[in-house]
Amino acid sequence: MNNPSTSSISLFDLIYAISKKWLFLVGFMIVGGIIAFLLSQGSNKPVYESSATFSVSIDYRETGALSDVQEDQAMRGVGYVLSSDTLVEELIDQLRSDGLSISKASFRENSFIDRVDFAWTIHFRSQDPQTAVKVIRTWEQLADSTIQQNLSHAQKSAEYQSLLWALESCLDPSPERIIFNDWCGHKTVDEILNEIDSLSDQIRLERKQSGGLLSALLVENNSKARVPETPVRNQSGILIVAGSLIGVIVFIAYETILFAKAYKID
Predict the structure, then answer these.
(1) Which end of the chain is more exposed for a tag (fewer CB within 10 A), N or C?
(2) Which helix (H) or strand (E) holds 37?
(3) Is residue 41 pLDDT above 50, yes or no?
(4) Is residue 187 part of a domain?
(5) CA separation, residue 244 to residues 59, 70, 129 (Å)
């Protein structure tokens, strides 16, 4: 070990040399951790998250049995409304009028929605817990109002569709002739056809305003936003550990260089 002409280094000798200076190793770890902690205080502030949940159910008395795909499509419709550009733009305008200015890009970056079974949850993160809860409270209010309005249009569309089917039954499907029944409330075939056209136009309009929601959906905001008390992300701990590891690496590298020079190893 003490032969300066040695041309190769023994890993065991290196480990033994480093182990004798374990106090210095600990010192490097502590210094690295302290430096990382100081840096984290200036550049990595804790992030808080507020959220609200909307439960979704389906009135199967209206729809009958649905396949898994149909249920999934119905659920996705609620998610589309929650994250739609129209709703987000309205949300940003409302926040701005309340004294909180957030750009659309910033909102998209710090917000997300997720689904668990028959429930959608909206989330927003901010370094200020009050900002996080204010955004979510405004978002959930606008979302609830929009969803209920859309469901109202979806239900009107379903009602008009039922009337259309009933009205079409007044016409004989036979290609040779078209007849109308007295109980339909119209005196001529033209009146029936005009009413069919009018109902078709109303159905298209109501469907457009429904936002694609199924009329049999029941959506309720049953878990409202609260002020977050603890951060969901605080990188100080991770940075301190990383700083300590860097301290260890620096110390080992330094000792390896000294060891190599002492033994004249290239």
Answers:
(1) C
(2) helix 22-43
(3) yes
(4) yes
(5) 58, 53, 30
